[in-house]
Amino acid sequence: MEYDIADLNNDLNGDNWSITVRVLKKSNKISYQNERGTGKYFTTILIDKTTEIRAKAFGDDCDRLFLQLQENNVYNIKNGKIQLADKEYNNSKNDYEIFFKETTIIIEQFGFTDIPTHPQLKTIENFWSMDINTLIDTIGVIIKIEKSKEIKKKNSNDTYKLRDIILKDKTGFSVTVVLWDTEAINFNANEGDIMSIIDGQIIVFKNVNKISVTGSSEILINPRWKVTEDLQSWYKEFEKKELLNLSQMSIGSQEHNTSEISQCNRNKTINERILQENIIEDYQISERLLKLHDEVNKKQKEITDLNFKKQRLSNERESLLEN
């Protein structure tokens, strides 16, 4: 029976289910050794119109199926063991994972243009409502590339490198992506390029929510996706409007030149960031005040209850003494 990935669960562990999916990503064969001996496996990320799931093949199944699965191709996959994902080793966005086995059958499919060719991407607007430490896949236009900076670690003489990249998308929201050390030094892209971050981690750095590129994250510059083309078209129109606004601001002035326009753009970007950070900090303070207010109300209620109980006990004592 054919299922969507979103409907898979460990109650289906018979040889009676199949899925039609695209291979988003496939690892190399990986060797390992433990107390039971040596072995090998590979992993793959599969996607359909509903969601993603990670699949794994070990031993003979690793050899048998490795060459059958190629990135970006679509396959019908039948049979396999479905079990709860071990989140210590599996950071995919699904609560389940698939283990291929000897009865797993894989057949390539053609003509499935409606299956996504990339992860389900969050807009930058979505980012601002997500929890800290969660992972995010997103995409945006690079509107500013900061220089890499060397930062001294707290309580240590060691240092690390970081670089901030500012992304913006069609929602009008911006976000700062933080690159560290080697990624910060070797970053190679230009303002106006499209940048996608897969498995970026949401962090708070200097009181501002940002996306951190970790060792398990992936950076893609100008990926060959439809959403990339859409963003490029949008950004061209965005730039035209920005230049039009700047030219209107310059009416009556005799001294505006290209460098001043660039400075206006930089000042506008900086002002946007300051305003955004101001809004975020104000929101965090408001949230904290609400929590404190709730705590005060709870304590006040507890005080009232205790005073009432104390008065009741006092009345009981007086009544007993009178008798």
TrEMBL record:
Keywords: Coiled coil, DNA-binding, Metal-binding, Zinc, Zinc-finger. Residues 126-222 form the Replication protein A OB domain. Residues 296-323 form a coiled coil. Transmembrane segments: none annotated. InterPro entries: NA-bd_OB-fold, REPA_OB_2, RFA1B/D_OB_1st. It comes from the Eukaryota. The keyword Zinc-finger applies. Residues 15-107 form the Replication protein A 70 kDa DNA-binding subunit B/D first OB fold domain. The keyword Transmembrane helix does not apply. GO terms for molecular function: DNA binding; zinc ion binding. Belongs to the replication factor A protein 1 family. This is Uncharacterized protein.
